[in-house]
Write a structure and sequence with these properties.
This protein is mainly alpha-helical. Helices cover 75% and strands 0% of the residues.
Length: 193
Amino acid sequence: LAGKPWLVETNSQYGLLSHAALTGIFAALGSVSYEGFSVINQVSYLLYYLGLYLLLRLWLRSQAAALIGLGVLLAGTYWLQLSPTITAYDYPGLSPWRFGLYIPAAIAWLIYAQRGARDRAGRLARELCLLVAGLAPLWNIDSGLYLAAAVATTMAVDAVAWGKGKLTARITSAAARLIRLSGYTAAGLLAIS
C-alpha cells in the first residue's frame, strides 16, 4: 500500500488476528492498492449489515421491524461525521474490522437463548459464542476485551441463575464455560505464535 496509513491509529486498537486476516486476504488477491483495500472494507460493511439484519430478525422476530432497525442503523452510520469530509465508511478504525465481532457472538447467543442446551444446535451456538468471545481480544484489543467480558458475565449468570441442579452444579457449569472461553483465547494465541 505504498506507506499509506490504511488502518488509521491501529497500533493500539487492533490485535493480531485482524492483521493476519487482512494479510491472508491481501496474499490471496495479490497486490492490493489503497483503493483495493477500500473495496475490501466495503465488502466487510456489506457482510456486517447482513449480520445486523439477521441479528435484528432473530431478536425481534419480525422482518418489518428488522428492516426498519437496519434502515435506522444505516442512516446513523451514514450521517456519523468524524470531520467535515470523513464519514465512518471512510475510516477503517470504525469499520467491522474493529467492531464487527459482536455480531456473530450476539447471533449465536440469541440462537442459544431461544433453543437452550436441550438440542445440539443450541449447544453449538453456545460454543460458537464462547469461541468468538475467546478470540475477540486477539482480533481487537479494546472492543475484544469488552466482548469477552460481556460474554463471560452473561454465560456465568445464565449458568448460575437459570441453570438446573444444585447451586454447586450451576457454579461448576459457569466455571466450565469460563474455562472454555479462556481455552479458546489460549488456543488462538498458540495458533498465531
